[in-house]
Amino acid sequence: MKYDMIKASLALAAVCCLGACTKNYLEINSNPHEVTKEQMEARDYAIASGLSAMFGTVVSTDVNTAQFTDCLLGGTQGGYYADANNGWTSTISKYNPTDDWTRVFLYSDKVIPQLYSNMSNIEGISDDPMVHAIMKIVKVCVLNRVTDTYGPIPYSEIGSTGKIQVAYDPQSEVYSQMFDELDEAIALLDENLDHSITSTTDQVFDGTARKWCRFANSMKLRLAMRVVYTDFRSSEGLTPQQLAEEAVAHPVGVLQSNDDNAALSPLAFGKDGNPLYTACMYNTPVGSLTGGDSHAAADIICYMNGYNDPRREKYFSRAQFTGENAPEYVGMRRGGVIPALSTIGLLYSGVNFVDGMSTPVQWMNAAEVAFLRAEGAGVFGWQMGGTAREFYEQGVRLSFEQWGVGGVDEYLAGTTLPQPYVDPNDGLSSYDGQLSTLGVAWNDAASKEEMQERILIQKWIANFHLGNEAWADIRRTGFPHLIPAVESVVGNNTQGVRNLELGARRMPYPADEATNNPENYARAVELLGGSDNMATRMWWDCNPAIK
């Protein structure tokens, strides 16, 4: 970013004003303490540029960064995307990644340094309470993804530059600070609900304070559900239930319609457009209709094929296999043998983006919030403002509306089951295990476990592209059941993942931390409570039903 230039221009403007004060009457008689139009414009530009740069750190607008964090990590571990580049031998899906695949969230200069440096710049030039509230919310969105990847992370000690070679915070304290910052943001917005900033400054909610407040409450609900199986208490002594109920009961409330959805406008993208789209299309073979480095995963297509889900045409490109019984939609198995992309791989369904490179980047949608409320009400007995069934069906309806497809009533009455995976490449990576015994239709007599699985399956389908959130839900609840990696391919992996049904629970810290930040790294591993590998479960990953 060009903030040194911006600050220099502000200083230059001030110097020029002082040096030219004898030129005419207006300058002689102007208030020397009054900010000029030019200075205001420069400041507003700096604020807008700084916020845009901060927005670009949630799901990074840098394509290379987003490829690692959201395609190769979140996309695969969330069961949405599959690696399709057969030149890759060491991948996260095979549990043998190299350090440059797993260190990105902590070490990329496009995430934490970009977040903190721009936040520091804005703090120095803006006293707008709405701007400060937005910065707090964005900070939580970014650092939540980072801590849910590694466990303990630097948080309280990170300075204005975003340098992470500092002390690590226990993950419980990271969550405590995130709740505090959300509450501070909500309080600022409460006092300024009729306030706005220009839509060009805010590429997420067009400068609307109420929408930011709903989003902050929704993030609070999301985080409260994340820590539901722990003994967590906030700095105010509140339990996850109390935090969730507080978010829902807030006068402004949580996301409830698709007009409230949090998504980054394509106006914030660079020349490469939507970073996930561009990353999925990297290395597309000549003539391919399905993309390149990342294709659709078998997991989600098996569920959606079994449910005859009409959202498939929005989510995936059609497979290109031919012949009798050729599948219309079929994904690749994650953690298996990757077929040659130029001959076989390009025949599998690709990842679709409805507006191509101009597709907005989703952060959170109203359907997810409805499913959070369904789980809270039905599984944990929280006061969510309605019944589990009401919120479950509302979540499905919101998702169908978001994606512009019909047939929701028939879908909600469905009793068919997810399909087994039949690999059209001569059955090389087929999987005949039963992914779920549940259809879509609600069952009032269901046990809490069945209720949770049904809700989580539909939440997962509705959250397509939000792979890191899906991966967090899978670790927290065990749902949905995914197709495990192929034993013969990953059985001797280097990251300690021996239970392939459980899969990866976290990413290892950057290798350089052991030498560049040795004392703090050792403390981080101690806080983690296990080996620094992909098999160790983090603090909130403590559901007693997952073994």
User: What would the average pLDDT be, to the nearest integer?
Assistant: 93
Helix content: 40-55%
In the predicted model, the low-confidence regions spanning at least 5 consecutive residues are 1-33
Continuous helix count: 22
Major sheet size, sense and barrel closure:
2 strands, antiparallel
What is the terminal separation in angstroms? 46 Å
Largest beta sheet: what is the strand line-up?
A: 1-3
Provide the β-strand percentage band.
under 5%
Radius of gyration: 24 Å
| Count of DSSP strands | 4
Query: SS-based structural class?
Result: mainly alpha
- The SSE order reads HHHHEHHHHHHHEHEHHEHHHHHHHH
Q: What does the overall shape look like?
A: globular
Overall description:
The protein is mainly alpha-helical. The chain is globular. It has helices at residues 3-19, 25-28, 37-55, 63-77, 99-102, 104-107, 112-123, 129-150, 171-190, 209-226, 240-249, 275-281, 298-306, 312-315, 366-380, 388-403, 408-412, 448-462, 467-477, 487-490, 513-516, 518-528, and strands spanning 81-83, 262-264, 294-296, 361-364. Helices cover 45% and strands 2% of the residues. Mean pLDDT is 93; it is low at 1-33. It contains 22 helices and four strands. Helix 7 packs antiparallel against helix 8 (129-150) and helix 10 packs antiparallel against helix 11 (240-249).
